[in-house]
């Protein structure tokens, strides 16, 4: 059995249930149908789904995911990370897990909000906090040496202050005249609540120029820019200011895959986007993302997504599969 990194969903205290009920009603109003819903708040996305789903390889951008109703899990290597109304998910660098909604129904759809991570805002807040502005757990994590990598996906208990800040942000969706002034304050508080909590360490490492999170993020950035080209390990190591052997080890600790595996999956995700959004056929998409062999592309696409390119894209267009 794969190891998990959250506990089961405990019974909700009455006051917690009341807060979540408000949040759910607000989210339902602004996400009236299944799918991804951008909001008037930059970086805030609402996601709704009315049925469980099979595991689907996806891209998780850096940010915070707070579930309001239902349950979801991310499969990363040999780990299963479960998140629900009591557990939030923090993504410190771009990750490529398989995501799976495990609890949802038409009567009680899966609902979550996703906040993008602004590294500049994070750095500015850290400057104000200083080392004295942390809890013992966050201080201990942030004091770890830069060479000690942590996973880019982590789950943590949602604290009442964090849920209150999320609820205030959702309420602002009903008062657009106040958004410009108050939404940045609510988002800043949410970021603060995460920073001083048990997952503050990974976020601090991302903001520190010489932290392992920032170093791996730089290597990932190079792979993103040159996903369709061969990239040598020594080029990645130079971008991350690490030795090749250290980069390979830390990269795998953070992402659960090697740089080569990561680049291959980036290519396949990009090809999928090209076929879905721009209508390219498999051969054209394969060429655009750097494949010389269309048959090799088809084999690797099927291995990752579970179906040949044409069939899987048809499922997406028919709404049989929801891209996270």
TrEMBL record:
Read off the PROSITE patterns from this record: HTH_ARAC_FAMILY_2
Q: Which SMART domains match?
A: HTH_ARAC
Gene3D superfamilies per the record?
Answer: Homeodomain-like (1.10.10.60)
Its transmembrane ranges are: none
- List, for all copies, the residue spans of the domain called HTH araC/xylS-type: 217-315
The family database entries (Pfam families) matched by this protein are listed as: AraC_N, HTH_18
Keywords attached to this entry: Transcription, Transcription regulation
Q: What is this protein called?
A: AraC family transcriptional regulator
